[in-house]
Amino acid sequence: MAAHVNERSYDTTARSKLCRACVDFKTWVNQQKATLKEETPVGRNDHASKKKECPLDKDELGNQTWGLLHTMAAYYPDKPTPEERSDMANFFTTFSKFYPCHECAKDLQEQLKLTPPVTDSQHALSQWLCRVHNNINRRIGKPEFDCSRVNERWRDGWLDGSCD
Ligand SMILES: Cc1cc2nc3c(=O)[nH]c(=O)nc-3n(C[C@H](O)[C@H](O)[C@H](O)COP(=O)(O)OP(=O)(O)OC[C@H]3O[C@@H](n4cnc5c(N)ncnc54)[C@H](O)[C@@H]3O)c2cc1C
What we know:
164 residues; binds flavin-adenine dinucleotide; globular; Four Helix Bundle (Hemerythrin (Met), subunit A); mainly alpha; ERV/ALR_sulphydryl_oxid_sf; mitochondrion
């Protein structure tokens, strides 16, 4: 499995400095300030305040992407065909090459090498993805999610009825 982030997309200084999807909002603001100091004539406004409908930073992108990935797993067939299984595995391989946060993408590629997608069923895929997400949670200091509740979170709603 080819597992390389497209370094060409990231290797220019300017691009990596301005890759908003690669850093959290605070880091991005600090990078912007540094860039503005280097490049902006004195007196120009600082645009570092957060606005609505702006490009996603790393955490926004991550949160929204997890929503899509877990929901895809939630609606994956219970009994997938061989083609569906292969398509889903290929999806994750391709996804990991193009995920715009390159540090995140590299880590995901490593994880996919160690534990490839388990595509046997909806349950198997959702549990696999939950473990992948928990590995990242652990690495970045976020609480682990109870994988026995993954279908409540992403498909059925909580058993206490709070999503009904
Ligand atoms: C593929 C990928 C790789 C990433 N790699 C990195 C990285 O290397 N470094 C980095 O700083 N950030 C990374 N991120 C971003 C990071 O995972 C979070 O998305 C980001 O920190 C925002 O966190 P959050 O608190 O909004 O919750 P998120 O982690 O985005 O989770 C969103 C929601 O998913 C649910 N959830 C949490 N854990 C699980 C689970 N195990 N299974 C099912 N549901 C769960 C919770 O309800 C949570 O509110 C990555 C994101 C993705 C999609």
